[in-house]
């Protein structure tokens, strides 16, 4: 685990909402914000996994809450923010981390498969951003949004749906940064390459190892490294940064040779 550069209690008094916060990168983000004094609110679909995550965080002395919702469902997203109001847990920071896709050649992606991935990664992120910004506007309270995308500078062969959806999020990030600056919101993104989480079991291991070996920094990222980048973008140190997508990819964007993604 990388050494934390942040001062203790940096996010004391702040509430941080993390989609997909019960596993992998989202859980690492929740852990770091919690260790830095924030109250953390986790959302995802799997209630049991959320409960396990909040249990672990609570044992570490972190104030943690969980709400099971599907971010693809507009009604569930609206209901979440109403519930957060009712529970006095209005977020200061939103981390749109929930997402994913399946690896398949473009010609094997059905219209419904394409739609499912766009619904999750682009529309789901959009719905969460909108509900968060309306909440901030009502309360005349600024805030931070950080969107987790994928390294995509040279396209993402084997994941055309995710490539399209995440490119949408990158431009949404820039556009919302303009439109919502007057609301006191900054909107940024982090684009990880390959991060060591259980979710990688969905991909071909030999291919992943070959992809990593070809990087200028030939290793996977750790989830905690993504969490530190997110914490920086949500911190006062980044108050003049908006609309950027930070590549956290071991230099993948320099190679011009895009990793191939395949199912196991
Ligand atoms: C490598 C490093 C980079 C990235 C790493 C990470 O992101 S790690 C993080 C990774 N974490 C995650 O990825 C977690 C989140 N990911 C997910 O939940 C799913 O990937 C999801 C977004 C598709 C779920 O959507 P959903 O519940 O709505 O799914 P559904 O079952 O209802 O199917 C909808 C349509 O998709 C079709 N289809 C599905 N699978 C395949 C396939 N393998 N092949 C072809 N097609 C497939 C399915 O047939 C159907 O189309 P049809 O038959 O009706 O025409
Ligand atoms: N690991 C990697 O190499 C990389 C990952 N990423 C991205 O980082 C993010 C986290 O990935 P990682 O931690 O590895 O994988 P996970 O599969 O553990 O994370 C995905 C999270 O999103 C949640 N989620 C999925 N669908 C929905 C939905 N419809 N509504 C609400 N929550 C949902 C899942 O919970 P649940 O199933 O309970 O809903 C899960 O907690 C993803 O967006 C991923 O694409 C980006 C680059 C590389």
Automatic annotation (TrEMBL):
The keyword Plastid does not apply. Its main location: other. GO terms for molecular function: trans-2-enoyl-CoA reductase (NADPH) activity. Keywords: Fatty acid biosynthesis, Fatty acid metabolism, Lipid biosynthesis, Lipid metabolism, NADP, Oxidoreductase, Peroxisome, Phosphoprotein. It holds the Pfam family adh_short_C2. Its EC number is 1.3.1.38. One of its GO terms (biological process) is fatty acid biosynthetic process. It catalyses: (2E)-octenoyl-CoA + NADPH + H(+) = octanoyl-CoA + NADP(+); (2E)-tetradecenoyl-CoA + NADPH + H(+) = tetradecanoyl-CoA + NADP(+); (2E)-decenoyl-CoA + NADPH + H(+) = decanoyl-CoA + NADP(+); (2E)-dodecenoyl-CoA + NADPH + H(+) = dodecanoyl-CoA + NADP(+). It is found in: Peroxisome. The keyword Lipid biosynthesis applies. Pathway: Lipid metabolism. It is an enzyme of class 1 (oxidoreductase). Belongs to the short-chain dehydrogenases/reductases (SDR) family. Interacts with PEX5, probably required to target it into peroxisomes. Participates in chain elongation of fatty acids. Catalyzes the reduction of trans-2-enoyl-CoAs of varying chain lengths from 6:1 to 16:1, having maximum activity with 10:1 CoA. Has no 2,4-dienoyl-CoA reductase activity. This is Peroxisomal trans-2-enoyl-CoA reductase. The lineage of its organism: Bacteria, Pseudomonadati, Pseudomonadota, Gammaproteobacteria, Lysobacterales.
């Amino acid at each position: 685990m990388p050494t934390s550069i942040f001062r203790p209690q940096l996010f004391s008094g702040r509430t941080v909402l993390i989609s997909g916060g019960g596993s992998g990168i989202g859980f690492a983000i929740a852990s770091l914000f919690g260790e830095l004094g924030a109250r953390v609110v986790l959302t995802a679909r799997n209630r049991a996994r959320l409960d396990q995550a909040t249990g672990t965080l609570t044992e570490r002395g972190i104030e943690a809450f969980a709400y099971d919702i599907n971010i693809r469902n507009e009604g569930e997203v609206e209901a979440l923010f109403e519930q957060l109001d009712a529970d006095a847990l209005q977020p200061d920071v939103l981390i749109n981390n929930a997402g994913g896709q399946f690896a398949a050649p473009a010609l094997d992606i059905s219209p419904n498969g394409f739609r499912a991935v766009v619904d999750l990664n682009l529309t789901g992120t959009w719905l969460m951003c909108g509900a968060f910004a309306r909440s901030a506007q009502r309360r005349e309270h600024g805030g931070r949004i950080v969107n987790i995308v994928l390294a995509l500078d040279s396209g993402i062969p084997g994941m055309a749906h995710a490539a399209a959806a995440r490119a949408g999020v990158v431009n949404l990030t820039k556009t919302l940064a303009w439109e919502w600056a007057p609301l006191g919101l900054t909107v940024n993104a982090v684009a990880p390459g390959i991060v060591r989480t259980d979710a990688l079991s969905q991909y071909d291991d030999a291919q992943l190892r070959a992809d990593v070996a070809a990087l200028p920094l030939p290793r996977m990222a750790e989830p905690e490294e993504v969490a530190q980048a997110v914490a920086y973008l949500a911190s006062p140190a980044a108050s003049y940064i908006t609309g950027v997508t930070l590549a956290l990819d071991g230099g993948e964007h320099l190679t011009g040779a895009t990793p191939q993604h395949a199912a196991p």
